[in-house]
Automatic annotation (TrEMBL):
One of its GO terms (molecular function) is oxidoreductase activity, acting on CH-OH group of donors. Belongs to the short-chain dehydrogenases/reductases (SDR) family. The lineage of its organism: Eukaryota, Viridiplantae, Streptophyta, Embryophyta, Tracheophyta. InterPro entries: NAD(P)-bd_dom_sf (IPR036291), SDR_fam (IPR002347). Pfam families: adh_short. It comes from Salix purpurea (Purple osier willow). This is Uncharacterized protein. The keyword Cell membrane does not apply.
Length: 187
């Protein structure tokens, strides 16, 4: 007698393509690993720390049996529009699909938490260029590219914000829903 086999259900994010900015370490790394466990294919983004980014990608790739990698690394400074474009191009090129998920985690934070009187204009500009401008540039690029899964489904854009930036978190946002009115959705 043959033993009945239990059908395997697809994972919730099976083969969805996700970019997690700043995923070489910290919160971004944890989110990338979690999305991979839900079935997503990942772009691990970093700006300077290639070694750490490679470790995250290797970790994800070694935990699945696929012959093709489920995670790749891409260096891109999110405050630079050309590099943001490259990041999205790379995701589409390598995985042969439009993007489904963007998680903005790239960020800089001075661990000394200086008071405003001790914060230089250069530090202020740098923090805002990554944490705020970077998130904006990635959302803008995503607004033009995110793929709608089904007519009723929304895509996922998450912004991890810090004490410097305005409190602005999108859990699951309708960035390109039924209306297709991206600008309205993202403003
Ligand atoms: N940790 C917390 O408790 C906490 C709480 C609330 C909010 N946040 C916010 O969440 C965000 C992430 O925090 P975290 O603790 O995970 O930080 P983290 O451990 O310092 O990691 C920062 C990540 O951002 C990347 N990054 C930095 N500048 C970048 C740039 N210009 N372009 C692309 N990637 C860049 C880093 O890449 P490299 O490795 O290449 O440098 C790294 O992957 C920050 O905005 C922070 O303010 C953190």
């Amino acid at each position: 007698m043959t033993t009945p086999t239990t059908p395997t259900l697809p994972l919730p994010l099976q083969d969805r393509v996700a970019i997690v900015t700043g995923s070489s370490r910290g919160i971004g790394k944890a989110i990338a690993i979690h999305l991979a466990s839900l079935g997503a294919r990942l772009v691990i983004n970093y700006t300077s720390n290639k070694e750490q980014a490679d470790l995250v990608a290797n970790d994800i790739n070694s935990s699945c049996a696929d012959s093709t990698p489920r995670a790749i690394v891409a260096q891109a400074n999110v405050s630079d529009p050309a590099q943001v474009k490259f990041l999205f191009d790379e995701a589409e090129r390598v995985f042969g699909s439009q993007l489904h998920v963007l998680v903005n985690c790239a960020g800089v934070l001075d661990p000394k938490y200086p008071s405003i009187s001790n914060t230089s204009l250069e530090d202020f500009d740098h923090i805002f260029s990554v944490n705020t401008r970077g998130a904006f540039l990635c959302c803008k690029e995503a607004a033009n590219r995110l793929k709608t899964w089904w007519w009723w489904s929304n895509n996922i854009v998450i912004i991890i914000y810090g004490w410097w930036t305005e409190a602005w978190v999108w859990g699951i946002c309708s960035i390109k829903g039924c209306s297709g009115d991206n600008d309205k959705d993202i403003s």
